[in-house]
Amino acid sequence: MNAPSVASGPDFSRLTPLEYLSLADRERIHTETIRWLLSDDSPLVPDARIDLLSILTGSDFHGAVIDSASTEHDHLDLLVKATTAGHSRYVAIENKLKSAEHSSQLSRYDEYLSPYVPCDKAFLTLIEQQPSSSTAWTPVSYSTLASILQAVTADSKNVIRNREYVADYQATLGRLVGAVHRVVSSPDLYAGNGAVFPDPIPLTAPADFHEFASYVEKMRLRTVLQKAWMLQLGQAVSTAGNGAAWDVGETRGAAHLGFDLCLTSHQHVQLLVGLQLQNRAFKVFCAPEPYEKGASAAAHTAVETVLASLRSQMGIEASPLTPTRDRGFRSFSPRHVAPEGTLSIVDWEVACRAVLSNLTRAVGALGLAVERADA
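The chain above was modelled as a monomer; its predicted structure follows.
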């Protein structure tokens, strides 16, 4: 099922009890709700539960019986055990509503799950992020989850009790998915104007926009929706073929898009050079590699020397270098290169590619690059 159009999207003016609860424990509320839908206490008939599990994993579980669904196995969010023709099968689900994979989580879970075979592994995210530390996990979006639940509940016979709770969860999912859809499909209206990025909300904004902005604030979705916009931008720049490894993260509640351009060295110190976008401002950065706590004096000197040389070589107006940090990361911001008054992915892709091209040229002119950062 496709995401709803902006015109026919969900009503953001009212929240369900589940949405209020999710403010207290965010991801866990959704994990436990999925567990409830798959458990013996589920409001769904057994065949509907199997349909839900099959579509969620992309594997055929028809003919299977779900034996158990339990949470927090060695910090893994959800582990489901099923039986097919007397043989055990497992499904592991790692749920990331607003956060992302960290500290090689999925590869560590692979080790934990090694006794549970065969095991389908689903990486569930709101903004369609990809697994980073393991290829054994299948990415699944909340949009897919919402579509699955709508499909299995379309036949009223599949819901045997607690219809109001199922409807509330569907409404909760619909608003989450609808918010992401609005931001990536109409970013100038729904990501700008103060709803997602920090701007004053204009008095001339339409009524439904005010409802949307209020929903984003109440549900504390600004950072994850910034990430959704940046994922679209990163994919666009990557598709254009600049070749830099990239990812989306956050620092102190603000999302950032990072392009790791190359590894280089200065005075026997290995350095990472790249470009970040945060709060709609570009930052050319340099940091010791590996990026560890307590960079040495030599590393601090190397970062400052290389970054100052890049700032000069790029030949653009830019801010002074940021102050020295304990770990050695420093940056400067090119001025007058970011699009103003728009969050159009196309406009920002052009700007990103231009800054990356200039930075690549500067790196080459200085003879800095020794290898690609993703090599």
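The chain has ten helices and eleven strands.
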